[in-house]
Specification:
Blueprint (H helix, E strand, L loop, with lengths): L23 H24 L10 H4 L5 H12 L9 H18 L3 H5 L4 E6 L14 E7 L8 E2 L7 H4 L3 E7 L8 H14 E12 L1 H4 L6 H10 L2 E7 L6 E8 L32
Parallel strand pairs: 1-2, 1-4, 2-3, 4-5
Antiparallel strand pairs: 5-7, 6-7
The chain binds S-adenosylmethionine.
Subcellular location: Nucleus, Nucleolus
Protein name: 25S rRNA adenine-N(1) methyltransferase
EC number: 2.1.1.-
Amino acid sequence: MSRLRKKKTPITKLTTSRSSSAKPQSTRAVIRQFHVHLKKQAQGQTRNGRPEALGADLGSQVEQVGGLQEYQEMSVRGQGNDRGGGCEKVLIGWLLARDQKAHCTKSGLRSLFDVTYLRLLEVGALLPDNYRSCASWIDVTPIDLHSRHPAILEQDFLQMDDDSNMEKWDILSLSLVLNFVPDAHKRGRMLRKCAKFLKRGAFLFLTLPLPCVRNSRYVSLETLVQLMHSLGLELVEERWREGGKLAYWLFCKMDSEGIHPDGQQFRTKRVLLSGKSRNNFAILM
Ligand SMILES: C[S@@+](CC[C@H](N)C(=O)[O-])C[C@H]1O[C@@H](n2cnc3c(N)ncnc32)[C@H](O)[C@@H]1O
């Protein structure tokens, strides 16, 4: 029996503003369902010995839970202005504070990198203009696996060329993207790539659902910071609250090559918290 397929909405008709009509419970349900599906898919790939593939063919494989498009739509609604706004607000606040501080001595953050505009690579961009309020000093390149707008480059971050991006970026945003990657080794690769792509003294903005670091068997707030340090990324800002949904960090790429401690301990999973109610979020190097 042939199944009725849901009619796809053309990209031009997708919501690009943040007004939300769907109920928070229904947006959360789609997002949760999508993550469960990605996880099952990754487990299946590992069992079959085929770890690659979550890039290009993602769209067709997740069709049964509404597809990447619907997931993205729900994510945009979930961060609507009427629900507190997007994560970029946190990054903008931190950058403005740092910019003002740098102004006291020189002419703001841009002088630290000797540039007219700070170059920001926004990985996992659902809207093309998240940083419009900073257009006079930040030049944004928004990318996503599935572009919802002509101004968002359709690009898998994991496939970006290392050589041409080496120490190219002043800011990199990885907001709710690392948890989207269903494989622990790929998460490690993603973070290693971030460290490579940043200039010395440049910033990595990271957002994760709080349970990834507060209720995981394998990752804690402390070990995440240690892991980042092993990549040469030093914690400069952190924000989360008990009972909250998200955690935000700002890391700065350290100057000296020599100070990285051994990242050996992040090669295998170590149980930090046990118990049935824990999740399995992990990052492996
Ligand atoms: C939950 S949304 C994040 C939205 C937004 N950044 C935020 O903070 O709300 C996750 C997005 O990351 C994108 N994504 C996941 N892995 C990616 C990769 N390897 N390269 C580019 N985009 C990726 C997905 O396509 C999805 O649109």
